[in-house]
Structures are given as C-alpha cells and as structure tokens.
Design goal:
Oligomer: heterodimer
Number of strands of chain B: 0
Structural class of chain B: mainly alpha
Strand content of chain B: under 5%
CATH topology of one domain in chain B: Rna Polymerase Sigma Factor, Chain: A
CATH architecture of one domain in chain B: Orthogonal Bundle
Largest interface: A-B, 56 and 65 residues
Number of helices of chain A: 6
Structural class of chain A: mainly alpha
Bound molecules: zinc ion
Largest sheet of chain B: none
Strand content of chain A: under 5%
Helix content of chain A: over 70%
Helix content of chain B: over 70%
Distance between the termini of chain A: 120 Å
Distance between the termini of chain B: 48 Å
CATH class of one domain in chain B: Mainly Alpha
Number of helices of chain B: 9
Largest sheet of chain A: none
CATH superfamily of one domain in chain B: RNA polymerase sigma factor, region 2, helix turn helix motif
Chain lengths: ~160, ~180
C-alpha cells in the first residue's frame, strides 16, 4: 500500500486543519488505506478522551489553605500600599518575580532600562546646554571685557 | 451583568481591591494545579507551584500589562516554576518513578460501576501517556486539550511561534494515538 500521509498530518486532518485540497486527498486516501483508517480511529479515541478528561482536583482543605496564604500575601502587598513597603521588602519581592517569571522580569527590566535611558539623555542634554551656555557667556563676557579694556586703554 | 475580565480584575486588584485577586485565584487555581500535577507528577510540588505562582502574580501585579493575556502570563509563570524544579536531578527521578496521577480523582457520576471503571482505566492510561510525552508536547497538549487555551494563548505561554505550537500539539496527539491503535 502506497501511503503518503504522516501520522501528524492525519492528526491535522482529524482536527480539521488541513486546507481544502489536502483534506480531499486525505479523505480519498482513507478509502484505500487500512492503516490510516486505524490511525484515524485511534486519533479520534484520543481526542474523545482528552475532551472528557477532568482536571486532577486539589484536595479542598489544601486548596483553602493555599488560598488563605496567597490572599494574605496579596492583601499585604496590594500594589497601592507598596509605597509603604521598605526597600528590602521591595527588593526581595522583585527577586521572587525575577526567579519565577522571566516574562515579567524582561518586561520590567525593559521598561526600567528605557526610562533610565530617557533620564540619562535628558540629564546629558541639560548638562551640555548648561556648559554651552556658560561657555558662550564667558566667551561673550571675555570678549566684552577685552573690548572694554581695549577701549579704556585706547588713547583718547 | 457579565463577570469582569481577567485584565479588569488585575486592574481592580492594582487599585487596592484584594477581592479581585481572590476571584482570579478561584478562576485559575484549578488550572495551575492540574498543569503542575502533570508537569511534576508530585502533588506536594504541584501545591507549592500553585502557591508560588499566585504569590508571584501578586508581586508582579504592578508591572502587569493588560493585553488580554492574563491566563497565558499566569501559565507562563507556573510553567517556568515547574521547569526550574524539573531541572534538579531529584525531581527528574521522581517524575519517572511516580506516575500515580490519579490519587485525587473525583468519584464519577451517572455511570454504572463497570462503565465507570472502563472510563477510569482509559483516563488513567491516557494520563500516564501524556505525562510521558516530551515536555514541550505535553505542555502544549495540556493547555490545548484540557485547559482549552487558543493557539495564540499557548504560543504566548510557551514563548513559541503559533506554528510550532500547532506542530507540538498534533505530534502529541499522534504519539498518544499510536498507543490506542
Ligand atoms: Zn495511509
């Protein structure tokens, strides 16, 4: 039997995710391929099992215990109260998140880096302009001074 | 009145309402625990991951971006915790040794004893097979089939392209089906 349908492709077929043309081809193929017909039934059995598979439940006592701890923590650290937290507390919190969630870490770091850069750029611009202005002034003053002294020293 | 969205609850929590956080816990603790049970095959470790995941959510609430991906974000936190645990050799050994995933099964309803047994046996077998899948396939399949997350949400959770996620899921289904032929 000439079979050109992979198991994975058949899985896509059963899930209805092949394009129309390939769907028709696989459909036709199923009529003549005994092993693909068996695979299709196996895939449908798996899908049916997955569809009715219950979650593994957490014992309710343990669930309540965990919920209690989590909520106590959440209440303590409601973000609007964060301002009251000490620097040490804030830092240890951040390390938990860093360890647990690179996703959040990356986002946060990214934002911090960005705002840090923005602050740096603003500072540099401010400093440069102060220096430039000061330099221009002193040059101007010196020029004026020179001119005055020159004019003062000019024989009348 | 419709229930508030995950993002709305996060924003409410951020504004100082701890009950919003409780609602998020009630909404997703079952999902996180179930995932961790599969990922770690260890009830105690799964409980730890459940607790730590939500502690992290509380800690990270301030930086949370409401883009409609709370579930994916939460599962990503839980998944990273599970992966970290699995890195230790001890956990690896435990995972192979303890495929007893059914200790907490609820009694089945509306079924005769033999039918219930049959379903239960099939479920046990399926769970064992899922637990034995390669990590990425198992995670993608669990999020898709048991948690009914969309391909986009799973991609967001696993930090992988949508096409990769689809391939993982269909490969996992094919791998499981091989045992049911
Ligand atoms: Zn075939």
């Amino acid at each position: 039997m000439d079979c050109n349908v992979s198991y994975e492709e058949l899985a896509r077929f059963v899930a209805g995710e092949l394009d129309d043309e390939r769907t028709r081809e696989v459909f036709d193929h199923l009529r003549v391929c005994e092993s693909c017909r068996k695979r299709r039934i196996a895939l449908e059995t798996v899908d049916a099992g997955l569809a009715e598979m219950p979650r593994i439940p957490l014992a309710s006592r343990t669930g309540e215990e965990i919920k209690g701890k989590v909520l106590a923590h959440a209440q303590r650290s409601t973000p609007c109260e964060c301002g009251a937290a000490t620097a040490v507390e804030a830092e240890s919190k951040q390390s938990v998140i860093d360890k647990a969630a690179p996703f959040a870490k990356a986002k946060r770091r990214g934002r911090f880096v960005l705002s840090g850069e923005a602050v740096n750029i603003a500072l540099i611009v401010a400093m440069v302009s102060i220096i430039v202005i000061a330099a221009l002034r002193s040059v101007g003053e010196r020029a004026n001074g020179t001119m005055t002294s020159v004019s003062e020293n000019l024989p009348s | 009145m419709t229930a508030p969205s995950d993002d709305q609850l996060m924003l409410m929590y951020r504004a100082g309402d701890p009950r919003a956080f409780e609602q998020l816990f009630d909404r997703y603790s079952g999902m996180v625990y179930n995932y961790a049970r599969f990922a770690l095959s260890d009830p105690d470790a799964a409980e730890d991951v459940l607790q730590e995941s939500f502690l992290s959510v509380a800690d990270a609430a301030e930086g949370y971006e409401p883009r409609g991906f709370f579930k994916a974000w939460l599962m990503r936190i839980a998944r990273n915790m599970c992966l970290n645990r699995l890195k230790s050799a001890t956990a690896r050994r435990q995972r192979v040794a303890a495929l007893d995933l059914t200790a907490g099964d609820p009694p089945s309803r509306d079924q005769g004893p033999s039918e219930a047994l049959e379903t239960r046996e099939r479920m046990d077998r399926l769970r064992g097979l899922i637990a034995a899948l390669p990590e990425n396939q198992r995670d993608a399949l669990l999020l898709y089939a048991v948690e009914q997350m969309s391909y986009n949400e799973i991609a967001e959770t696993m930090d992988a392209p949508v096409n990769t996620v689809k391939t993982l899921i269909h490969r996992a289904r094919a791998a499981l089906a091989r045992s049911f032929e």
